[in-house]
Write a structure and sequence with these properties.
Strand order of the largest sheet: 1-2-3-4-5-6-7-8
Number of strands: 9
Strand content: 35-45%
CATH superfamily of the largest domain: Calycin beta-barrel core domain
Shape: globular
Radius of gyration: 20 Å
Number of helices: 3
Largest sheet: 8 strands, antiparallel, barrel
Helix content: 10-25%
Distance between the termini: 70 Å
CATH topology of the largest domain: Lipocalin
CATH class of the largest domain: Mainly Beta
Order of helices and strands: HHEEEEEEEEHE
Mean pLDDT: 86
Low-confidence stretches: 2-30
CATH architecture of the largest domain: Beta Barrel
Length: 180
């Protein structure tokens, strides 16, 4: 009888923890990622061409190199996004749009109809020369540069910032064309 009560108490406790986790959306998991964004962003200064120095692997950019992202502020306040790269020797292009959110460093980006994803500017150089970008999912991470070559010292600094946020930077794919 005591054994049955212990099992019931344990099940009740696990049920309560599960409900709390589901309600708050914050389960204590090993390796939790810090997805906080920069506190201020001058959207006009973020516009222009960025070079994708490194990224986590994902299907929509798999096998691509020489990837760039070009952001253009539109009259209605949205941002036109053009991603370009090369796959199997052939140029590729994807055109999307982004919109701002109440958080300065968080945008919402869509490349297909009305399906939007988070675009979190988590770190950015004071001079605006590089950015570390993620999303709601820990499976997405990009290192972007304003120039087509990034020094190893700057890359090392950005990698350290990403690791401090909980990312496994060993999974990053670097574009050799953009690394000094």
């Amino acid at each position: 009888m005591k054994h049955t009560l212990k099992i019931r108490a344990l099940l009740l406790l696990l049920t309560i923890l599960f409900v709390l986790c589901a309600v708050t959306g914050r389960c204590a998991m090993k390796g939790e990622i810090d997805r906080s964004v920069i506190k201020s962003l001058d959207l006009n200064n973020y516009m222009g061409l960025w070079y994708e120095v490194a990224r986590f692997d994902h299907s929509f950019e798999r096998g691509m190199s020489n990837v760039t992202a070009e952001y253009t502020l539109q009259p209605d306040g949205t941002v036109r996004v053009i991603n370009r790269g090369v796959r199997d020797g052939k140029p590729q292009e994807a055109i999307g749009k982004a919109k701002t959110t109440p958080e300065a460093g968080r945008l919402r980006v869509s490349f297909f109809m009305f399906f939007y994803s988070d675009y979190n500017i988590m770190e950015m150089a004071e001079n605006g020369e590089w950015a570390l970008v993620g999303s709601r999912s820990p499976k997405y991470l990009w290192i972007l540069s304003r120039t087509p070559k990034m020094s190893q010292a700057v890359i090392s600094h950005i990698l350290q910032l990403a690791r401090e946020r909980g990312y496994d930077t060993s999974e990053l794919i670097f574009d050799a064309n953009y690394v000094d």
